[in-house]
Design a protein that fits this description.
Elements lengths: L7 E5 L11 H7 L12 E5 L15 E6 L4 H10 L4 E6 H13 L3 E4 L7 H10 L3 H11 L4 E5 L4 E4 L18 H6 L4 E3 L2 E2 L11 H4 L6 E2 L2 H13 L4 E4 L8 H18 L4 E6 L1 H6 L4 H11 L1 E9 L3 H7 L5 H13 L3 E6 L8 H13 L20 H8 L21 H29 L4 H32 L4 H20 L1
Parallel strand pairs: 1-2, 1-3, 3-4, 4-5, 8-11, 11-12, 12-13, 13-14
Antiparallel strand pairs: 5-6, 6-7, 9-10
Helix pairs in contact: 8-9, 9-11, 14-17, 16-17, 16-18, 17-18
The protein binds cobalamin and iron/sulfur cluster.
Length: 506
């Protein structure tokens, strides 16, 4: 006797930020739903990140897929409470980074610890036919299905299967179910041309873990071409590549530029593009760097996210970025020459930051003109599980907390108490202005009017200057007097915040 039809629900958890991002993870994974078992009559989606209505009756579904996000754990817990007798498969960043901890708490949930393409289809087939979660776990073990973690009742321990990546070259073009809605709401339309990173060695980076130490891989050019075509046909005026490094190498970026040019001509439409890359990748273009940058600008690539991280050589060494501050500087000037809009990743504070490094960073930010950009510089290093820094900080007894499962970081000690205090004040300042900054950043990246963007740019530059001024004044005071007291730091902090309040009233 065949089982009664099973109802499938996919819940995409929400972000806490004001930015509307196209949820391409859902599009990518929906390709792997077995069509004979799941169709529009028994398959349902809830986008908690973009839908207003969050209410849903979970009782009516049999199989629940959940894609977790940073900051979604509180809501996730409430949902999991309602799913007690269902087959639940949880993927996304919380499962990738904290499956061991989660499997201990949620003993009836199956966790996907990497790319869902590897196992979703087989998991759904099994989920459709098994009588219980116990049976599902047994089959996963027998068949050694990769990228899975769960609580093993027999062993009384968390069980892990091996981690694997999928073959991107054979992937098809995802549907982009929500693209029209995202465009209507001035949100960010997104797609992938590659995954992973050619370097893959930064001490703080989770990518080596997510992608099992496999470096940069690209999708096929036919998938990339079909997807850009689909998005432009759907009305996208701007497309963000979510790759870790959409440039990758000379052949990739030049082919990508030709594809963009061909499709833009077809639709007689100038569309703008942006994405992340690294200084190392740009340096790797060698003598072709200028040609590539000019070509990128020519076809409409205007926005680059770039993980500079520091302007101090000793700090760059700790981060294992593989580049010097001089090389960082050279690339920034190159990008400025071609008038790219650049958004820079910067980590001002790690456990070993010194006052000298702080000064080197501020000098770098000023010298390169980055001070006028919209990027947030005074960031603190996030210590994430499964990274080289996590191992090192643990060995040095610097970690002072359990993993924060919601935010995916560990709290750690600084070696210099003065840096600790300054970093705490920066965090305090951030908590006052961060929400507004995210909103302004979103306006700048989105397709809002030029006037709205100019206003946002002005306000954001001002907010950024608050933390810069605070740090610069602390450093100047320290250099002059060879010391700085906590009382003086507090006075400087209050003065900086007062100025911020005054600007708001203006
Ligand atoms: C785009 C993006 C964002 C967008 C989100 C867009 C969106 N709606 O998804 C925005 C800008 C909002 C964002 C914000 C942040 N992000 Co972010 N983000 C990314 C990025 C670059 C790409 C994610 C993506 O879309 N990938 C493509 C899709 C197809 O892959 P995916 O979502 O991972 O899904 C795959 C698997 O996870 C799995 N999967 C996912 N769901 C499910 C569900 C099931 C059932 C199954 C079986 C499998 C499965 O299969 C999918 C296909 O392979 C990643 C880097 C990365 N490569 O993961 C960082 C990343 C996830 N972000 C990160 C961080 C730190 C943040 C912020 C904290 C940054 C900050 N300081 O503000 C914030 C947090 C936001 C918040 N608190 O609300 C870190 C997390 C690291 C960590 N462990 O702490 C990452 C890994 C970047 C990095 N290299 O450090 N981010
Ligand atoms: S360059 Fe970026 S993606 Fe590559 S290892 Fe470093 S932080 Fe990770």
């Amino acid at each position: 006797m065949s089982k009664v039809e099973q109802k499938l629900l996919f819940i995409n958890m929400e972000y806490s930020q004001a930015e509307i991002n196209e949820p391409i993870n859902v599009d990518v994974l929906a390709q792997y739903f077995p069509k004979k078992l799941f169709n529009k009559n028994n398959t349902f989606f809830i986008y908690r990140d973009i839908d207003d209505k969050n209410y849903f009756e979970i009782e009516q579904y049999d199989i629940i897929l959940i894609s977790s996000k940073i900051s979604s754990f509180n809501e996730l817990q409430k949902i999991l409470e309602l799913c007690k007798n269902k087959i639940v498969i949880l993927g996304g960043i919380l499962a990738i980074c904290a499956a061991d901890k989660l499997a201990y708490i949620y003993r009836n949930v199956i966790f996907n610890t990497g790319e869902g393409e590897i196992n979703l289809e087989i998991l759904l087939r099994l989920a459709y036919s098994v009588e219980s979660i116990k049976e599902l776990k047994k089959i996963i073990k027998q068949q050694e299905i990769p990228n899975i973690t769960f609580w093993d009742e027999n062993e009384k321990a968390v069980y892990f299967t091996r981690k694997e990546v999928c073959d991107l070259k054979t992937q098809g073009c995802p549907r982009h179910y929500k693209v029209s809605e995202i465009i209507k709401q001035n949100g960010l339309v997104r797609m992938e041309t590659s995954r992973g990173c050619p370097w893959n060695k930064c001490s703080f980076c989770i990518m080596p873990w997510k992608y099992c130490n496999v470096k940069w891989r690209m999708f096929s050019y036919s998938k990339i071409e079909e997807e850009i075509d689909l998005l432009i046909k759907s009305g996208a005026k701007q497309i963000i590549f979510t790759d870790e490094d959409f440039i990758g190498n000379y052949d990739h970026i030049i082919t990508l530029c030709s594809i963009i040019e061909k499709i833009s001509r077809k639709y007689k439409n100038k569309v703008f593009f942006g994405g992340s890359t690294s200084v190392l990748t740009l340096l790797g273009l060698g003598e072709d760097l200028d040609f590539c940058l000019a070509r990128m600008k020519e076809v409409g690539i205007f926005l680059l996210f770039i993980g500079i991280e520091s302007g101090s050589d000793s700090q760059l060494l700790r981060f294992n970025k593989g580049v010097s501050s001089k090389e960082n500087e050279k690339i920034i000037y190159e990008l400025q020459k071609y008038r790219f809009q650049i958004d820079v990743g910067f980590i001002m504070f790690d456990a070993d930051t010194t006052m000298k490094e702080l000064e080197e960073n501020l000098d770098f930010i000023e010298r390169t003109g980055l001070i006028n950009s919209i990027s947030r510089f005074a960031k603190k290093l996030r210590i994430t599980p499964h990274t080289r820094f996590f191992q090192e900080y643990k060995r040095r007894n610097l970690i002072t907390s359990d993993l924060d499962i919601d935010e995916l970081f560990y709290v750690y000690k600084f070696t210099d108490p003065l840096i600790n205090l300054i970093s705490d004040y920066i965090e305090k300042m951030d908590s006052e202005i961060l929400k507004e900054s995210y909103h302004l950043q979103y306006i700048l990246r989105s397709t809002n009017t030029l006037e709205q963007k100019e206003m946002a740019q002005k306000r954001l530059a001002f907010l950024r200057s608050c933390s810069y001024n605070f740090l610069r004044t602390c450093i100047n005071e320290y250099k002059e007097k060879k010391k700085i007291s906590p009382e003086t730091i507090l006075t400087i902090y209050n003065e900086c915040l007062e100025r911020e309040g005054q600007y708001e009233c203006d």
